[in-house]
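Fig. S4 source data, part A: sequence.
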Amino acid sequence: MTSFWHPFADMFAVESAGPLVLARGEGVRVWDTSGREYLDATAGLWFANVGFGRSEIGEAAAAQMAHLPSYSTFGDFSNEPVEVLAERVASFAPVPESKVFFTSGGSDSVDTATKIARRFWQLSGQQTRTVFITRQHAYHGMHTAGTSLAGIPANVEGYGDLLAEVERVPWNDAQALRDKIAEVGAERVAAFFCEPVVGAGGVFSPPEGYLAAVREICRETGVLFIADEVITGFGRAGDWFASRRFDLKPDLITCAKGITSGYLPLGAVVAAPRVADVFWAQGAGVFRHGYTYSGHAAVAAAALANLDIMSREGLLERALELEALIPQALSVLLDHPLVEEIRSGVGALAAVQLDTERLTKDPALAARAVTECRNQGILTRALATGALQVSPALVIDEASLGRLADGMSAALSTL
């Protein structure tokens, strides 16, 4: 009997079979409490970019805790690590002189971005701009706003209307965005949310020219362009932000995960001057939003240590190498009758899509595939499309990629 209510879990199934309790990690491997070793194909949950076992990150947090673990940053309070981290993150931003609002994670960041966007238009005298446009397959976290913005139907069903005025368009059709803005009325649209690479919805890389096209549509119509980089930020896409790689210059970026490699919870919203300057202006007043742990000192110290590792070890460049190496390793799966395609294309991200016809006949197929992968010593998860997630730590080597592909192949052969 467990008292721990697991996220995204069928608790009857967890209670019946028992949880997989992990005890330690090193690099791209983790061990459970019985000592069994697993190769982690997912970097925890897209986040362990520098891998497990980096003691210097914990040491940096501990050193800060010995001085000042944290303190409120509401009003004019601050601390040294968060000031340094804000400058570091701002220096990575695609738009110079951006500002950084810290949160406790990706879902916080998405909800914060919706409030910044609506408040921006109020302060700008365009109070009718309240509608958000999002995309098919989109995942924007599970807070109130993010749930409503979701393009994954299963994540929305059962909750009712949590955030009003949300419209959806196909994930790969720029003209559909233009048409939707015209239908709603540009004077009513606050922002367009866009993952540079769709993540939990199935790992869909943008079609050629799509990102440039939707960015230009937002510029033409005045709509704020919000890049959700909770997954793609901090190295996974081969740059500090995918928005830098694709020259998007977004008005807002939501991020989390890789900023600490998951060693402690942290997220942020990066605001370009177009947005931030309105809140910095005399007369803007108090932005009545924030979190107890916005700008947590020890977490900021951990983030700085994590970013130091990424810079020192060239992990952004390694992600670009993995962009080719991951699909190359997974290509052995293409001959398997259960595999429909391998989706990849940007950074250290891929998905092994199981046959959609088989999934229709057997909805539990992906879940069984995940279980069989675990039996082969590979930890992965099923994405919304019935694909297996492949997003390893950026420190993975070619031998481990081969082990990952072999383990998945053996797992699928048992089904």
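Fig. S4 source data, part B ends here. The chain is about 40% helix and 15% strand.
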